[in-house]
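Pipeline run #58 for the internal structure catalog. This entry was flagged by the ingest filter as a single-chain record with no existing model, so it goes straight to prediction. Upstream metadata was stripped on purpose; only the residue string is passed forward. Reviewer on rotation: M.T. Logging verbosity set to normal.
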Amino acid sequence: MNRFYLLGLIFLFIMSSACVPGSGGDVIVPPTLPVITVEPTSVVPTPISQITPTPPPPVDPTATVSSPLPEPTDTPMPPPNTPTPSPDLPIRIEFEQGAVSATINGRIEAGQSINYLAWANAGQKMKLELLSHNSMANFSIVGQTDGQPYKRLVNEDRLWEGDLTQAQDYLIGLHALEAVDYIMHISIVDQPDIVMPAWPIIDAEFGMILGGAHNGRWLDPITVMNSINDVERPYRIHGYEGEREIAIGSLPYLAVGPCHNQPFVNMTSDADNVRDAVATMATWDLQPRQPEAIPVDTAVYQEEIRALLEASALTDPVVNIVSIDRIDLEGDGVDEVLIHASNLTGLGNGLPTANAGDYELLALRKVVNGTVSTMPLLLEVYPADVNLVTPSQIDVLGYFDLNGNDRLEFVVELMGYEHRFVHLYESIPQGALLISNAGCSH
């Protein structure tokens, strides 16, 4: 018998043995990926980005899934050819480093099936959208370990989102009755934190979720959104002067456009009641202390504001104090003073401009280490004329105990040409801490 023919038979025998289930051949299993968690900050919440799932070990994106290799033999084997992607074998989906999503463009022929594999951990969430002309292409999703069909072809939806119950490969099968180009977008993210009870803090006028509180610690807006995403809730609407009404808030949602990824809640309330107000579900006294208005021409405050402006490169500034509030923020019997000063003469001239000497200032005056100090919290100064700028106009919305610890936080609106932001401050021994900054700009 020809020895090459005999070697060929031996090779086929080895290959068939390696592919028989239970024959003792090594089965290649994707490694279990660590679930990355992020501890929420206890003082300054920042919107949490979707947590990045760690992808499986790098795989050539053009490679197909193959059977286990045969045991080595004494006869040298020729190097294998680079496999060509086949619509009948799955193509591994890999995210770029640091990414949680990928977009794949392709073409599927009539009656053809194209399969993809995506690895995910238990508890993660997958979102997949398939776009094609006239929605000609559809897809299915099947777990490769549990055999569970997560989406069947009979489901005509081209957008699917669901929780993944097992760490495994998920087989995504694309099918079409007619030839068509397609775009597939897939994302896999860790489930965000859900905290109960969460006490949301909402900008009542526009519905922005500023954050929230849980057992005395601050929560970021995304965590709050996911923690109240079950039913509509009643909210107490509070303005500078006190409580105004009870209103129903919608289910939270993420905005698109200029406010992209900012969580919102819509309030079913009269427009006048929600203007310059916050909405909460607090069961405690939200405003246990009210501010005392101090005359704006009080000499000591005029001098303090002048000194701050001169230290900020304004020569001979026009001191124009809008409001002075004196209030015990920390509940320790010692008053703090919040001063708002403004001189924006360039506004109202059509295009957004600022004239030389314009400014907007919010300052906090308090006792720090036994010494009275005046510190700027927000400051915009314009030593020279500037065109096409967007100065912010400050408005103090009120003083509220937003986490139930009998200490008062204060809420400040910054409104300007095509932008609006809301800041939430907490008084601390060294000054004030910005614990939330939510808003939109064009």
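catalog note: Confidence is low (pLDDT under 50) at residues 1-85.
catalog note: The CA atoms of residues 197 and 214 lie 6 Å apart.
status: ready for reviewer M.T.
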